[in-house]
Amino acid sequence: MPELPEVETTCRGIRPYVVGYNVRAIIVRQPKLRWQIPTSLHELEGQKILSVTRRAKYILMESAKGTAILHLGMSGSLRVIDASLAPEKHDHVDIIFSTGKAIRLHDPRRFGAVLWTREDPLQHKLLCHLGPEPLSDEFDAMFLYKASRKRKVSVKQFIMNAQVVVGVGNIYASESLFMAGISPKIAAGRISLARYKKLVDAIKRVLARSIEQGGTTLRDFIQAEGKPGYFQQQLKVYGRAGEKCTVCKSQIKQISQRQRSSFYCSNCQK
Predict the structure, then answer these.
(1) Residue 262 CB coordination number (10 Å)
(2) 43: annotated active-site residue
(3) Residues forming a β-bridge with 116
(4) 190 has catalytic annotation
(5) pLDDT confidence band for 232 (50 / 70 / 90)
(6) Which of 10, 52, 120, 231 supports an S-S bond with 210, CB 3.0-4.6 Å?
(7) Which fold has domain 141-264?
(8) Is 228 in the active site?
(9) Residue 3 designated active-site
(10) Annotated active-site residue in 54, 55, 57, 240
(11) Which of 24, 197, 205, 260 is catalytic?
């Protein structure tokens, strides 16, 4: 699944081809993704795109008339293409611009979304209950410490809860906990403020580094220009079960937490 760094990378990749340009046409080949694509999306035709921003894993394409809300789902990607390029299987939506370029949504599993709102997109029902952005000043150690009090859920599940903080997916949670020296199994409510400071710093560093390097390369993820990301080459624990820890040389362990794989070093993470 494309995670926050992949979505941020996508935003940065498509922004120069979108912002300031008029939408000439919208082609919907498959109207039923995770939700039905509303016919009102065509209100975007003729409109100039004012901004392309991200909230959690949602891409917001704003115009004077309203905002298109896009989500890549489990396997989706957005590509910048020439509008004349013939569609392939699973190319479900094209947003065509006056420049002759198009933004094309490719989504084999059809768990993505393309929605439309005339209101403030941050008040949309899918976005209004989300936690803070992990790279914002609002997300700090005190915030996480207060939110975790009396929580018995594991710290890994806690930081992956989008109502606590958005965008800390499975890969980045494992990597951040390793960097902070915190076991993924410990209850969120048992972690001290000092240790949460280490964790917040780790989350910010891991995500920022991943964004700089183009996101984690996953099987279904392709950058807007068609290039893969490179962060996966530097993963310390995720996907490395049975291999040696890069710090202490102990064996990396793998466990299942709520049907998600967690990778950690039991010697470095307590």
Answers:
(1) 23
(2) no
(3) 68
(4) no
(5) low
(6) 231
(7) Helicase, Ruva Protein; domain 3 (1.10.8)
(8) no
(9) yes
(10) 57
(11) 260
